[in-house]
Design brief:
single chain; 181 residues; mainly alpha; 2 domains; DUF6624 domain-containing protein; DUF6624
C-alpha cells in the first residue's frame, strides 16, 4: 500500500469508518440503552481491528499520506479502541505530531483518554464525565497549569469554573465507565 492510489483509498476508508463511528454515537442517551450500546460496540468491533492492521503494517496514518482529515479520522477510531491499543498507538501519534504529520490536539485528547483509563489525572482537560446530567472534568494534573498546556496545542482555554468543577479524584474514578464514549 505504498502508491498514491492506495493511500488515497486508505484516506477514503478512514473517513468512511470515522463517519460510521460518529453516526453510531449520535443521539446516545444518558445512559445509552443496551440497543444503542450494541450498535456502538458493533461499529468499534469492525473499526478497531481494521485500524490495528493498518497501523501494524504501515505505521500511524500520517497527514502527508492520508490527508489531515484522514489522519484525524485515524485518531477518532483510536479514541474508541481498547486501552492496550491506545497505549501502543500513543507514541506513534506523538511521533507523527513531532514531525508535523498529525494534529497536536488529537494527541492531547488521546493522551488524556489513556491517562483517565489508567486512573491517572489528565494533562489537557479534554475528558469530561457526565453523571445524572451533571458534566464535570475528570481530575487534571496540576490544574493551575492546564491552560498553559492547552495553549501550547492551540486548544481553547478552560474557564476557571470548569477547572474548579473537576470531580474529586476518588469520585471521578470510583465508578467511572471503563470505556469512555
Amino acid at each position: 500500500m505504498t502508491s498514491v492510489r492506495h493511500w488515497s483509498e486508505l484516506r477514503v476508508e478512514l473517513l468512511r469508518r470515522a463517519g460510521r463511528d460518529q453516526e453510531a454515537r449520535r443521539g446516545l442517551g444518558d445512559p445509552p440503552t443496551s440497543e444503542q450500546w450494541d450498535v456502538v460496540k458493533a461499529v468499534d468491533a469492525d473499526n478497531v481491528p481494521w485500524l490495528a492492521r493498518i497501523v501494524a503494517e504501515h505505521g500511524w496514518p500520517r497527514a502527508e499520506l492520508v490527508g489531515e482529515d484522514g489522519a484525524h479520522a485515524a485518531w477518532l477510531l483510536a479514541q474508541h479502541a481498547p486501552l492496550y491499543l491506545q497505549q501502543r498507538w500513543l507514541p506513534l501519534l506523538e511521533q507523527a505530531v513531532e514531525i508535523g504529520q498529525a494534529d497536536p490536539s488529537d494527541l492531547a485528547y488521546l493522551d488524556d483518554r489513556v491517562r483517565i483509563r489508567e486512573k491517572r489525572p489528565q494533562l489537557h482537560g479534554t475528558q469530561w464525565l457526565i453523571r445524572n446530567g451533571e458534566e464535570r472534568l475528570y481530575p487534571v494534573e496540576k490544574p493551575n497549569q492546564v491552560n498553559r498546556r492547552r495553549a501550547a496545542l492551540q486548544l481553547p482555554q478552560l474557564a476557571d469554573q470548569d477547572i474548579a468543577s473537576a470531580w474529586p479524584h476518588d469520585a471521578a474514578f470510583g465508578d467511572a465507565p471503563a470505556e469512555p464514549l
